[in-house]
Model the fold of this input.
Amino acid sequence: MSPETHHEHDAGEPHGSLKDYLIGFGLSVVLTAIPFWLVMAHPFANGVTAALVMGFAAVQILVHMIYFLHMNGKAEGGWPMTALVFTLIVVVITLSGSLWVMYNLNTNMMPMPDPSQLP
Done:
């Protein structure tokens, strides 16, 4: 067998080849370096930079799941993908709820003006 083919262990689960791991590593490095540069160089407004960093983070999660965790729709009858979908739903609900609460706190609890500056 060549080193670039998928190997089967006793459980029948596929494992990646050296080529797969190197591709995953290269993508991970690039998907880490670009957001680092975005934060350090400030080429865009803060909101745009934050959105780009979150987008790169989402892509990096997918890279890790595919190249390192070997998740696909065929493994274990599709249960890992079902668990992933459930986890993503919980994460989206948690993050959106947190952002909503923080936004409302920021909007509704603005600091009072300094009493010495009142007319």
Notes: DSSP finds three helices and two strands in the chain.
